[in-house]
Inverse folding.
């Protein structure tokens, strides 16, 4: 993955990249000339809770910073198996507390998460709510992994055709991350939690991807308790396809929609 990160295109000239300590959590701050000083997005990257780091996502994070007129903090949260559940949630909630105590008002903060990072964002917001903290103003989910019990029908239906999700390895990833914890714990699998009080949320998922049902069922759970939800199921798209905005017209369209959604709520 480190070797692959060297192939990620650099952000355009004028983009600021700095490493910060976000309440004890290492993070990469990304800002473009359009980024406002009081608008923030916390990005939680995917990688099955086992791998990933901010440099891998720079071709995505600078685009979000630009279209949302915001500063992005891409968290380098702790990973399993060395740091199993709930270490990642502890890092996310610590970074959010730092952000709203040192820099931002919650109404000017959003979460964005892709794949396992999407599930982590939802679970972290549930934990913050349960602890009585004010939640961010909005959230964006890209193909979120919300069900570590692996009950979605799309895992079977598209398990052999989704190029981004090695479904046969999912049970091992769950084992390494949970280290014996209940896969239906709300803080591990937000699909089984109470979504009451969560902020307006925009979901993107492909019609032909293995985690389609994780996104669709989570959006339905939010709607059932009266939350503001937008769900885009893009035909013939694969897992986390908005990440490929550099080469996919559908990805470019998703970035534009994310920008409009966040600007309207931040």
């Amino acid at each position: 993955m480190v070797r692959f990160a060297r192939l990620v295109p650099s952000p355009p000239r004028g983009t600021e990249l700095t490493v910060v300590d976000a309440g004890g959590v290492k993070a990469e701050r990304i800002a473009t000339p359009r980024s406002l000083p009081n608008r923030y997005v916390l990005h939680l990257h995917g990688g099955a809770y086992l791998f990933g780091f901010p440099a891998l996502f720079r071709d995505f994070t600078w685009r979000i910073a630009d279209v949302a007129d915001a500063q992005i903090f891409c968290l380098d949260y702790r990973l399993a198996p060395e740091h199993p559940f709930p270490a990642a949630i502890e890092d996310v909630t610590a970074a959010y507390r730092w952000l709203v105590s040192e820099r931002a008002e919650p109404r000017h903060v959003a979460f964005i998460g892709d794949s396992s990072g999407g599930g982590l964002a939802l679970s972290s917001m549930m934990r913050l709510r349960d602890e009585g903290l004010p939640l961010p103003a909005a959230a964006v989910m890209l193909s979120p992994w919300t069900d570590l019990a692996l009950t979605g029908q799309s895992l079977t239906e598209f398990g052999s055709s989704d190029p981004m999700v090695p479904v046969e390895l999912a049970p091992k990833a769950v084992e390494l991350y949970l280290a014996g914890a209940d896969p239906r714990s709300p803080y591990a699998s937000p699909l089984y939690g109470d979504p009451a009080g969560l902020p307006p949320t925009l979901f993107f998922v492909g019609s032909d991807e293995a985690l389609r049902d994780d996104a669709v069922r989570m959006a339905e759970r939010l709607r059932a308790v009266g939350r503001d939800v937008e769900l885009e199921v893009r035909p013939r798209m694969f897992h986390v396809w908005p990440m490929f905005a550099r080469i996919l017209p559908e990805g470019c369209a998703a970035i534009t929609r994310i920008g409009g959604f966040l600007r309207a709520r931040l």
In short: The longest helix spans residues 249-265. The radius of gyration is 17 Å.
